[in-house]
Write the structure tokens for this entry.
Amino acid sequence: MPMFQPCRKDGGDGDGRILDVESAVKDGVLGGGAVAVYGGEKLDLKKMIEELNLCEVPSVFICPISLEPMQDPVTLCTGQTYERPDILKWFSMGHYTCPTTMQELWDDTLTPNTTLHHLTHTWFSHKYVQMKKRSEDAEGRASELLANLKRVKGQARVQTLKELQRVVSNHSTARKTVVDEGGVALVSSLLGPFTSYTIGSEVVAILVNLSLTSEAKMSLMQPAKVSSVVDVLNEGSIETKINCVRLIEILMEENDFRPELVSSHSLLVALMRLVRSKRHPGGHLPALALLKSISTLKEARSLIVSIGAIPHLLELIPVLNPECVELALSMLDILSSVPQGKQALKDCSNTIPTMVKLLMRITECCTDYALSILCSVCNLSAQECSLRAVDAGLAAKLLLVIQSGCSPALKQRAAELLKLCSLNYSDTIFISKCRLTRTIQ
Amino acid sequence: MVFVLCTLIDSMGSLCSRHRRSPADPEENEQTAEIERRIEQETKAEKHIQKLLLLGAGDSGKSTIFKQIKLLFQSGFDEAELKGYTPVIHANVYHTIKILYEGSKELSQSSEDSLKFIVSDENKEIGEKFSEIGGRLNYPRLTKEIAHEIGTLWRDSAIQETYVRGNELQLPDCAHFFMESLQRLSDVEYVPTKEDVLHARVRTTGVVEIQFSPVGENKKSGEVYRLFDVGGQKNERRKWIHLFEGVSAVIFCAAISEYDQTLFEDDNKNRMMETKELFEWILKQPCFEKTSFLLFLNKFDLFEKKVLKVPLNVCGWFKDYQPVSTGKQEIEHAYEFVKKKFEELYFQSTSPDRVDRVFKIYRTTALDQKLVKKTFKLVDETLRRRNLFEAGLL
């Protein structure tokens, strides 16, 4: 029978896999009522199933083959019901058995199971009407809250914002209402130099859920507002911090984004702190992603280097997960393009060993970045750095790259770096350095 | 043997303890017990009191903030206290007119367009008189006649021109405010208003403290703070170090309008540069390792007016400033620039192990009570959250 584990998405009332007979009778699902309509139209089953996207559907409605709710149930001579296209596919593969009972079929007739279809339709309609009503309730509630927000102050304002945030994060229709009724401007106007943390954190939590227009983003880009978001980022709980990071990222997507808004010590130090946080690993990825976006802005690069980002990142790379490592490497690569960055990389004693270890370790992208960083550092002071690199096992790794299925451009660069390194040694010695010191996992 | 040992220890005990509990003196014992109880209670209470330190260069607005807190969270000033400020305000008036007159004389000799600084003949006499009075230790009461004379001199065009160059003199910020209120100030029944008291300028010497509790909106008893105000001039700073232990937060006041002014105690030193160095020094103090730093960028009202007329880059620290527009936008831009400079300074002066200190910047105008109240609410919130965080509850 169905193998999937149901998820508790729709505020489940008991075990959703079982068709609760009592409530089914009460709600008219088991007949007795007319076909459910919504907005004066007969509801299309396929549309309802898609829109509702429920995890917990009674198992009697689920096709054993596709594990999806059946829209056109047909019954075999064994009495088992399947979705028509799926059982036809089964037959077309040459099987003439009933998939669940394994019996051989004596009759290949497919009888439409009208009763089940009717039941399915009614059940889904009922759920659909419920959902629509809740949505409308949410929309209405959102409207009310916005109206309240214009009037109240102090604690009442905080409560209104908290409720608005709950409504908006739970109901997509409410989000649209808020945007349509000028909620974005109203909520954004609460950000400023005198925004308390309580208000600021709710405002950010609301804004990240809404789709912001260009205009809205522009109005949020005032230095005083961005400052208050950074303050909330510094003081907040981990969820709030992540919300702030997301909001800033959303703002950065705008074309007219001014780099000086994010070239702020406070912001960069706060992000770095998030990346290094042992208590909250959930913050690593968003913070790194934002830091990387910021490092693509020329103006911010030397600032990022000056807060000591490079040694911190190098220290963290061995313990980050692969996605984060790629971001970190890409950042280091970008930072190596400015003189301070190159110098900081060279000054850090674990740059070379870490980069050498990362070659051919994670993804091709990572190898690409690691190689690029090694090239930058070795070009800065060829003699010293290439010696250290070769001692760390670079030569063997470069050979691996060259022999691998990586892109030609990458192989070319590896070859060039290999040549650069080999200049310091005689042939025999260099060849001995090319032996792998450890098995590559 | 054991018996002897016990007796020995017993008598040693009574020799060592500070309170001889001899059963023959119950009243004394009662008193001592009471005192001990009180000491214990107070030590416990002390632990919950958060120490706030108002620091900053001279004239940065520390005492004004101090007065505001008194007005907002304590009983304010009663009539006697208000009246107590009358001599201070009168002294400010005499002091101001003396500085302006002597300033005009100096500028009429050193400045290129010296003619505009020459006071008219009738007023010259008045000027000389007040120059002399202003130099005394005790000032005469400010009568209507004297106020009238001062007013006449104030309105002299030369004096007005001198006022425009006020940044080159040690003119107190309250100059304009008091000069425009002379009639009121010289009234026989004059009792200073709250605003007058906030404007009154007296150089703090030594340390002043108040204890207060900003009562929350739901009237729950909030944190108890003890605020210390100190003298900002260089010679006062050696007294600060005695206050540095056990401080929850330092409120550092920096008057951002003084980027074109020099120190009272040293006419060659730019005030903003002095503030910069002072801030740096304080940040590096070992006892402030875990202390929260709240930076009040003060005198924004004066900054707003000045920044459109006097470019920021007259101050060495701001020499890389580029104006971008005009009006309100330019003011905001200039303010953000100054804020960034302070931020940069903070992070440069903070070693990596201290980077987790709370550091927040507030824009303030210490004379505006509403603003100070709003600002202090934010300060209170930040400090409370910090306490919860340190207690592991956040």
Observations:
- The interface with chain A takes residues 217-218, 332, 336, 339-340, 343-344, 346-347, 352, 355-356, 358-360, 362-363, 374-375, 377-378, 381-382, 385, 394 of chain B (CB under 8 Å).
- Residues 86-191 of chain B form a domain with the GI Alpha 1, domain 2-like fold (CATH 1.10.400.10).
- The radius of gyration of chain B is 27 Å.
- Confidence is low (pLDDT under 50) at residues 1-18 of chain B.
